[in-house]
Specification:
The structure holds 2 protein chains of 2 kinds. Chain A contains 22 helices and 6 strands. Chain A is mostly helical. Chain A has a domain of 73 residues. In chain A, a hairpin with a 7-residue loop joins strand 1 and strand 2. In chain A, helix 10 crosses helix 11, helix 11 crosses helix 12 and helix 14 packs across helix 15. Chain A is globular, with a radius of gyration of 24 Å. By secondary structure, chain B is an alpha/beta fold. In chain B, the strands form 2 sheets. In chain B, strands 1, 4, 5, 6, 7, 8, 9, 10 and 11 form a 9-stranded mixed β-sheet that branches. In chain B, strands 2-3 form a two-stranded antiparallel ribbon. The chains are: A mainly alpha, B alpha/beta. Chains A and B meet through helix 18, helix 21 and helix 22 of A and helix 4, helix 6, helix 7 and helix 8 of B.
Chain lengths: 473, 445
């Protein structure tokens, strides 16, 4: 079993979750690389009753009226901050981006149901996950499959199924074209009549009179060619087994969890190697992510801090790493609990509303002057909120003081460790100088007394959260 | 704290940000105390959102439709009541419409040929949910999906331009401005003397924190002006971060160069709403007179959801149609637009600006039992400015031909108004932006 250093444990928790305090990182590190990954991905075995109680007390989704746009967002953020099952939420976020469905078209109740479904099936065999998502009301509405009927096929779902959810237009490794326009038409026919019942719990229903039972030919002239009265289920089984799907999913997982993948032959070989884990394990997502998170690639120098933090990683992570608080409020007293969803949206990531079916643009897609100002001003709002009773985000003076040391050097070091751990080069000296500079700009001696904590330590964390290094994951 | 070279260059010479994907930092060539020089080719477009569902039938009143007063016995206007506070008729020439009496200023602009009214604007299978219908209007997509229509425009036309080439004024960025390739900034007006004060790299506002402000800003500038290896994400992050702070500071500094050319409402006169709406337009004036790239702007006037007591006040037992919630909002709109227009004229910008209003729906023709109106369908849009060919466009829906919910049937797809503006004012390809071709309504060009 490979060992897992503190920095590696922190890296794993930031990527497979939203980061956390030193106790959680120490716990992961003590388990070793394989043990830590095993712990994270077998999240069903982690007791999460505290969060469940919190959710039960803070939300009212028993009637459809309680399920609104802001409420489903508040619910998800509450989960991400409080869950002990960090990877469950992160993997749900991965699939939310992958099967990018938006509340701009889909009712909130269906968005919530889809989110629950993604959480339940996130590590299943891909065939089952894809089938469940495809038969769920949110997707049936989102990509118009409810209007895909015999004689009048709607190709929207059939196209995105292949282009965005499974194979991509071209194989990410071999660059071969994966399907043709004719395949889009034929696949669409296989899904005709797929619909959902118009009453709770809105389960899948095949409208047989609207289903095309004729013969369909797909992937003609390739090793995956099939002809016959193919159903939607058949098509999902066929596509899930194609190596192109294994490679595309591996590629997306790498880009989301490991590092930005290039077109180099080395990277293509890496993708191909991990795709085989999928193919050799009955398309198990769990085994694929286990292989990825225990790999040397994941713990390579190239991977550390190689991604730009997604807005929700930044907002949720800032609370979890520092030991801050998110008072989520209740359905009737929400206070300023919307700060997480609003700030993340203004940074470019509105949960439940990705920009389109291809999901969010990562890395430089998050970077522009308007979104950066939001990042810095969220940090300021979080660090300078001294109201510890109302719903919102805050960190107490006691918590901050517990991280300080008597010397400015050690204090800066402790906070950089806490918020990364970050290595910041010359900025270290600048941050230390900040602690040792008085109101008039003249040097002062740093002491970690209460007044300094309330002013300078809050300022220090705001400054760390404003560093380019902190924007990376 | 030492200023390094990069910082020095940025501060003194106005170096332009070099990243390919980021909007450039705006760097004014305008000297302190100066406004932007006139440019006859400049084309500014301002969206005014009337949020909540504006009652179109009591905004542009079809007073000759025999059904109008039957459907609205309490809140409807008789022809004799269509005159403003000065007793001047608000009836539109020889046409069978009159503006709400609260809109005397807009009537003057109409008479001067500066206002096009697009009657009966709406869309098929109307959605009566505020949220869904707003999405539809904002995305120009009948499913409400996707980015905003002006976000699409920005994705095509504003890449590589200044980060201030489009700006929203309001509590949050409107979906109309949701883009895929850039994030358009939203400036939330601050109370007090300088409404731009919060558009900044914000620091601790506590008493002790304020004294530490310079230290914080200096630390930020220092750490974000370090050099990073090319190809790393740190380089564009630092660059965008630094530009965010500096761009906001420049905006705040630039807008101080503005001198009002008109007297904007103050001190809750004629209403707090009128003051806040006019203040937002004044912020627009501050931006467009001092920042040459800022050509796409957005303001909001909310509160049109008048399910009850649309007219009157408690003092008149809710009978005085010249007062009340709707009149207050329409007065705010009319007075704000007039003041802003006067300001533009004083700054020599009136030929460069087109304004457009929209609301997610109109209201039901039949008044309800609470002297209010419920959610309806189509309603008129106003397009205002010197470049506009004033007059009536579209077609008024008949009140004798209502749908099964008792709502009017729209006559003009609202996207025709968008396409006309995109093609004839913004020089864009409306089909590429809206996904389909719509009629040119002819009020521009």
């Amino acid at each position: 079993m490979s060992s897992l250093s503190y920095d590696e444990g922190a890296h794993l928790l930031r990527r497979a979750g939203f980061g956390g305090p030193p106790e959680e990182i120490d716990d992961l590190s003590s388990r070793g690389r394989e043990g830590a990954v095993d712990f994270l991905i077998n999240f069903n075995q982690i007791d999460n009753s505290a969060m469940e109680s919190l959710l039960a007390a803070s939300f009212n989704f028993s009637t459809q009226d309680g399920i609104s746009n802001p409420e489903i967002r508040r619910w998800w953020f509450t989960r991400m901050v409080n869950t002990k099952r960090q990877f469950e939420e992160k993997m749900t976020l991965f699939w939310h981006n992958h099967f990018a469905t938006s509340s701009s078209k889909v009712q909130d109740v269906f968005m919530l149901n889809q989110n629950v479904l993604l959480r339940q099936t996130s590590l299943d065999g891909f065939d089952n996950l894809l089938l469940k998502v495809s038969q769920d009301a949110a997707m049936l509405i989102w990509l118009d499959n409810i209007t895909n009927v015999l004689g009048k096929p709607n190709e929207n779902f059939g196209r995105e199924l292949q282009e965005l959810f499974t194979m991509g237009i071209r194989d990410v490794v071999t660059d071969e074209q994966n399907y043709t326009e004719q395949d889009v038409k034929e696949v669409a026919r296989a899904f005709t009549g797929w619909n959902y019942r118009r009453q709770t719990p809105f389960t899948f229903q095949l409208n047989t009179s609207q289903h095309d039972n004729g013969s369909k030919s797909i992937y003609t002239g390739t090793p995956w060619a099939q002809t016959g009265n193919l159903s939607g289920e058949d098509v999902i089984t066929i596509i899930s087994a194609r190596p192109a799907t294994a490679r595309y999913l591996t590629w997306k997982l790498f880009n989301f969890f490991v590092y930005p993948v290039t077109n180099s032959s080395t990277d293509k070989a890496t993708i191909d190697r991990f795709a085989k884990v999928y193919l050799n394990n009955n398309h198990s997502i769990k085994e694929l992510v286990r292989a990825i998170f225990t790999s040397d690639e994941f713990f390579s120098e190239r991977a550390f801090f190689s991604l730009v933090k997604q807005p929700v990683e930044l907002t949720v992570g800032a609370i979890r790493m520092l030991g801050g608080m998110f008072n989520q409020g209740t359905a009737t007293a929400r206070g300023n609990s919307a700060i997480l969803q609003n700030s993340s949206r203004n940074m470019g990531q509105d949960l439940f509303a990705p920009p389109d079916v291809s999901g969010w643009d990562f890395n430089l897609g998050w970077v522009n002057t308007a979104s950066m100002l939001e990042r810095f001003n969220f940090a300021n709002a979080y660090l300078t909120n001294r109201n510890t009773t109302n719903p919102g985000v805050f960190v107490t003076n006691d918590q901050l003081k517990s991280i300080t040391k008597p010397s400015s050097k050690k204090t800066v070091k402790k906070f950089l460790a806490r918020l990364g751990p970050l290595s910041v080069g010359d900025a270290f000296g600048t941050l230390r100088t900040y602690l040792e500079t008085g109101d008039n700009g003249q040097p002062v001696t740093y002491v970690n007394d209460d007044a300094t904590v309330d002013k300078k330590i809050r300022g220090l964390v705001h400054q760390i959260m404003s560093l380019p290094e902190f924007q990376l994951n | 704290m030492a200023i390094n070279r990069r910082q020095f260059i940025k501060r003194s010479a106005g170096a332009v940000s070099v990243s390919l994907i980021m909007p450039k930092l705006w760097m004014g060539s305008v000297a302190r105390g100066q406004e932007v020089a006139a440019d006859p080719n400049r084309r500014i477009f301002i969206v005014i959102q009337l949020a909540g569902g504006n009652d179109g039938l009591n905004t542009v009143v079809p007073y000759t439709d025999s059904r109008y007063l039957t459907l609205r016995p309490t809140i409807g206007f008789k022809d004799t009541e269509l005159k403003d506070a000065n007793g001047v008729s608000t009836i539109l020439g020889n046409d069978p419409f009159g503006l709400n009496p609260a809109m005397g200023e807009l009537k003057s602009l109409y008479d001067a040929g500066k206002v096009a009214i697009v009657l009966g604007a709406g869309y098929p299978n109307p959605n009566l949910s505020h949220f869904f219908s707003m999405d539809i209007w904002q995305t120009a997509n009948l499913t409400g999906a996707g980015s905003g229509w002006l976000g699409n425009y920005a994705d095509q036309k504003l890449i590589g331009k200044s980060g201030l080439s489009a700006v929203s004024i309001g509590s949050a960025l409107p979906k109309t401005f949701y883009a895929n390739k850039i994030v358009i900034p939203n400036i939330t007006p601050a109370g007090g003397a300088d409404p731009f004060v919060n558009y900044a790299y914000q620091t601790d506002s506590s008493t002790a924190g304020v004294r530490d402000k310079n230290n914080q800003v200096n630390t930020f500038k220092s750490t974000n002006s370090r050099s990073f290896p090319t190809g790393s994400f740190s380089a564009p992050l630092a660059e965008a971060g630094f530009d965010a702070e500096e761009g906001a500071a420049q905006l705040r500094a630039a807008v101080q160069n503005y001198t009002p050319g008109a007297t904007y409402p103050t001190a809750n006169q004629p209403s707090a709403t009128a003051v806040s709406f006019a203040s937002a337009l004044k912020m627009v004036a501050q931006i467009i007179t001092t920042i040459p790239d800022a050509n796409l702007l957005y303001v909001q006037l909310g509160g049109f959801d008048h399910h009850s007591q649309e007219i009157g006040t408690a003092a008149d037992n809710f009978t005085d149609k010249t007062k009340g919630q709707h009149a207050t909002l329409l007065k705010a709109f009319s007075l704000g637009v007039q003041t802003f227009y006067d300001d533009l004229t004083a700054h020599g910008l009136a030929d460069n600006v087109v304004m457009m209003t929209w609301s997610e729906f109109g209201r039901r023709p039949n008044e309800n039992a609470s002297k209010g109106t419920d959610h309806g369908t189509g309603s008129p849009m106003f397009v205002i400015g010197n470049p506009v060919h004033g007059g009536l466009y579209g077609q008024q829906p008949s009140l004798s031909d209502l749908d099964s919910a008792g709502n009017i049937k729209f006559k003009v797809d609202f996207r025709s108004t968008y396409s006309t503006i995109l093609d004839k004012w913004l020089g864009a390809d409306s089909q590429a932006i809206l996904g389909a071709k719509y009629d040119n309504l002819g009020f521009l060009g």
